[in-house]
Amino acid sequence: MDIVQERLEREYDMDLITTAPTVVYQLLLRDGSVQEIENPSKLPDLSKVEEVREPIITATILTPQEYVGPVITLCTDNAACRRTCNILAAR
Questions:
Q1: Which of 13, 18, 14, 15 is nearest to 2 (CA)?
Q2: 64-91 b/e with 16+ CB inside 10 Å = b?
Q3: What is the block-wise mean pLDDT of the chain (91 residues), using blocks of 10 residues?
Q4: pLDDT at residue 77, rounded to an integer
Q5: How big, in percent rounded to 5, are the helix, strand and coil portions of the chain?
Q6: Which uninterrupted H or E stretch holds 52?
Q7: Is the separation of the CB atoms in 30 and 51 below 8 Å?
Q8: Is 86:60 a contact under the CB 8 Å cutoff?
Q9: Has this prediction a pTM greater than 0.90?
Q10: Residue 57's Cα: distance from chain center in Å?
């Protein structure tokens, strides 16, 4: 990310502010209550946690054919689950 920021600042004279993404995790506790946390350091004692729920998305990715392999690799390397792969049109 630092390289991208440096290039944008240098080549396009942009001032950027970058932040770490915030992911909200939902915890189902053994007492039946639900708690939301934004930082894993805020996890309660794991003996009190029944399950941890993290956000998921359903996405449609459209990409030129030459990038299909690398995009699939990127997705599977990051815990994605592919349902279908359709080729819309030949070049």
A1: 18
A2: eeeeeeebeeeeeeeeeeeeeeeeeeee
A3: 79 76 89 92 92 88 89 86 81 58
A4: 87
A5: 35, 15, 50
A6: strand 49-53
A7: no
A8: no
A9: no
A10: 9
CB 29 within 8 A of CB 4: no
Alpha helices per DSSP H over the chain: 2-12, 68-77
CA distances from 12 to 2, 7, 17, 26 (A): 15, 8, 15, 40
Contact 82, 59 (CB under 8 A): no
Cβ-proximal residues to 2 (8 Å cutoff; 6+ apart), any chain = none
Is residue 29 within a helix (H) or strand (E), and if so which, with residue range?
Answer: strand 25-29
Residue for token pair 């815990």: 79
Q: What is the pLDDT of residue 1?
A: 61
